[in-house]
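Hello again, I could really use a second opinion on something today. My current little project is about how a certain protein chain folds up. You're getting the sequence in one-letter code plus the fold written as C-alpha cells. Here's the protein in full, and shout if anything looks odd to you:
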Amino acid sequence: MKIADLLELAGNNLRQSKLRNGLTTAGIAVGVASLVAMLSLGIGLQNMANSRLKRSGIFDTVFVTSKQEMRGGGDEESGQQPQNFEDMKVLDDEARAEITKLPHVIEVQPEIMVMAEVRAGERNRAALMSGLPMSARDNETFDGMKGKFFSSAEADEAILQKEFARKIDSTPENLIGKDVTIRYAERQGGSDGAASFSVLRREKTFRVVGLIDGEPFGGMRMISRARVFIPSGTAERLNMMQMADATRAMRGDMERKTYSLLALRVDKMADIEGVQDAVKKMGFRAYSILDATQSLRRFFTLFDMFLGIFGSLALAVASLAIVNTLVMAVLERRREIGIMKAIGADEADVKKLFFAEAAVMGTVGGALGVVLGWLMGRAINFGTNIYLARHHMPGENLWQVPWWLVLGAIVFAAVVSLAAGIYPAARAARLDPIRALRYE
C-alpha cells in the first residue's frame, strides 16, 4: 500500500469519529504545548543569563600576569619549585604583541589604576583613576549613563562615578561638558637602565563627558573600583606611576616598560579555555572566571532537562488517549478490517494503517501544540514586561522558541503517537478475517 493511499485512508477514518479523535488530538496539543512552554522558558532564561554575562565584560576576559607577580615566584598550577626572577618571562611590550596574535583574542589592554586628585572649581577630592578600553562601551553599566562614552581611545575625556561626582559638585549633572583638572604622578625611569626612577607631579585637564551610577564590569575587575575613568590609550600615554612600579624598581627592571596585568578579550566564551592554555604555554599565568560559567551552564543543562521531563508528562498522558482511541477504533472497525484482509491486505498493511492514523493525530496535535505554546510564551512575556514596567525595570524576553524546538516538538509528538499505536495496530493485525466478517 502506497504512503499516499495510507494517509488518505487514515484521514477518512479519523473524520468518521470527529469528536473522539478531535479530543485525542487536543490532548496531544496540550501535552506538546506544555513541553514547548517549559523548554522555551529554560532556553529564554539561559540566553538572557548568557547575554548578561557576556555584556558584563568579565566572562569573556582572560587575565594575564607574569609569574614574577606571584608570591614565591613558583608555578602553583604545575607544582614546580620557585624559579629565579631572571628565569621568568617578563610581561612587556614584546609579550603583549605575542599574546595579541593568539587565535580568538580580539583585544589586549593593560589594567591601569592610579591614585589621583580631581579638582573642579574650588573643590578637590582624591580618587582612584583607571583606564577604560573603548570596548567597555558595550558594558551594561553604560546603558543608562548620563552623557556619552569617550569619543576615542586617545581623547582627553573623563567619565565620573556619580557618587564621587557629587563630592565635587552638589549637582553632578552640571559637570557634564565641563573641564576638571586631574593631578597624578608620572613615572620616569633612569636613562641608564638603573633601578632608580623619578616621579614627577603632573596636572592635566579633562572634559567630563558622562556619569555612571554603578561600577563597570559588575565590580569584578580591579579597575572597577575606580571613581574616575579615562580612555585606556590616554592612560598609557600619560605613563602614570602605578603601585607595581616600586616592586619592579627593587628588582632592577625599570629599563623597559612592563605590565603587572593584561586583560584579554576573547571573541567567544567557549574559546576562553584554549586561550588560557596558550598563554600558560608562553610562560605566563592566566586565569578567568571560567569556573563560574561552567557551573552556570551545568545548572541550566540540568534545569532544561527537568523542565523537559515535566513537560513530557502531559504528552505521556495524551499518548494513553491515543491508545484508547485506536483500541476503540479496532473494535468498531472489525468488519472493515476483515474486508481488507479478505481482498488481499496482510498484517503489515493493517499495522501501517493504524500507525498512519496515530502519526496523523500526533503530527497535527504537535503542530497545534507548538502554536499554543508560542501563544502562551507571548502572553507570559507580555505580562512579565508589564510587571517590570510598573516597577521601573527594563523589559526582558523570558520566552524563546528556536526553530529546532518547533521541529523537535512535532517530531517528538509523532514518535510518541507511533509508540502509542503499537498495541492497537498489533491487535488489529491479529484479527481473524472470518470472525471479523461475522462481526455485527
Remarks:
- Residues 71-76 have pLDDT under 50 and may be disordered.
